[in-house]
What does this fold into?
Amino acid sequence: MLNEKMQQAFNDQINKELYSEYLYLAMKALFEEMNLPGFVNWFDVQVQEERAHGLGMYDYVHERGGHVELFAIDKPEVKGKTPVEIFEQVLEHEQFVTSRINALMDVAEEVKDRAALSFLDWYLKEQVEEESNVGGVLANLKLIGDDKKGLFMLDKELASRVFNPPVIG
Ligand code: OFO
It folds into this structure.
């Protein structure tokens, strides 16, 4: 059985993961408008990953005999317009999510829920990967600057990203 505080923390994080899905869907739309299909594909994979992250926790709460409560998802605010600005926000957002996973682990430690800690370990590793992946694209974009050919090449590269349904936990 899940501790009440732990359950609340999971339900809050399910909302954050679904918000991430929504935010990346909004960003994907902007890249559609920029006619950059490789970036569109990159965000499409990101959208699917965030949904999987949210559903992973949704399933886990049930597995532990808890209660899932879904909250309203905020309107996504994409702050920038250029690929660099958008990826700066993605990195900022992933760093925020990492801090939330850490906070979730703090709760698990506080209520001595070692099973939840071990489950959350997967999410922590995933965040390291996400930050590194996003940071890599951002570094490339900064290197490219205003070079349209460079952007075209990067777009081709991002077209090859595929969604592999994660095995969570
Ligand atoms: Fe769910 O990892 Fe990104 O936000």
Remarks:
- The chain has one domain: 4-158.
